[in-house]
Specification:
7 helices; Rossmann fold; alpha/beta
């Protein structure tokens, strides 16, 4: 059974990286987060692509058996900005002891209920990552989150502080390009593929900018892989970085 949702303890933490309006926006979507045809339909389509990259990165980093269904056995994983658990649950099925943190209490609650219904033991916590005294993790993931963060430098420092020595971090985010403005913001939101107000193009971060910020945090970023869309392949990993990209990072 899933652990109960825990509220943040903030007595020793005064910084804030998540904007309240961003947390409220995603919290309002919690009720149908697990509906593949609902407001999070695009995330359901994106998740298999992210999982494919994540699985390969895990195997490469730890030199595990690519045929194993539980490559994270004996390891801990933290998903920051976990939403209702779309990534946490597959990580748990891979054998990890998983903790998910989300700024929106509605999301953490929806995630805990879904995990319990799925028979998965996942700890979910509502609040700022910087407020959590939760130790370090072998794997830290943060998917489609940093573009919603007010202070990206501080946020990445908090993620890095949660990474165990020798651990692996994986992040994905939209790129700040003319194509992403046209297709992800103006196009997808206007067409109802993504809820309006989800993206603010000026907050998108380029791979070079992310590499620099990760370097300041003491991490080395791997080569980014694009997440592209094609009429035949749908969403898929690509060398094209114009819309969205996913990267690994390890301690320098």
């Amino acid at each position: 059974m899933s652990d109960a949702t825990v509220s943040a303890e903030t007595n020793s933490y005064s910084g804030q990286t998540i904007r309240a309006d961003e947390a409220a926006h995603f919290g309002a979507l919690a009720k149908d987060w697990w509906d593949p045809k609902g407001s999070s339909a695009m995330l359901h389509k994106l998740n298999p692509v992210r999982l494919s990259f994540t699985r390969e990165a895990i195997d490469l980093h730890w030199g595990g058996d690519a045929e194993s269904v539980k490559p994270l056995t004996g390891k801990s994983a933290l998903d920051v900005g976990c939403g209702a658990g779309l990534l946490c649950e597959p990580l748990a099925r891979m054998g990890a002891k998983v903790t998910g943190v989300d700024a929106a209490p509605e999301n953490a609650q929806a995630a805990a209920l879904h995990a319990e219904g799925s028979g998965l033991d996942i700890r979910y916590i509502a609040g700022e990552i910087g407020a959590q005294n939760i130790g370090q993790f072998d794997l830290v993931t943060c998917m489609e989150v940093i573009e919603h963060v007010a202070d990206k430098r501080a946020f990445l420092a908090e993620l890095t502080a949660r990474l165990s020595p020798g651990g692996l971090m994986i992040l994905s985010t939209p790129n700040r390009t003319a194509a992403s403005r046209l297709l992800l913001v103006e196009g997808a939101e206007a067409a109802g593929m993504i809820p309006k107000g989800t993206h603010h193009w000026d907050d998108f971060i380029t791979p070079d900018e992310l590499r620099e910020l990760l370097g300041e945090a003491g991490l080395t970023m791997g080569e980014p892989f694009g997440i592209a869309f094609g009429p035949m392949k749908g969403l898929h990993l690509s060398s094209q970085l114009a819309l969205n990209y996913i990267v690994t990072a390890i301690q320098s």
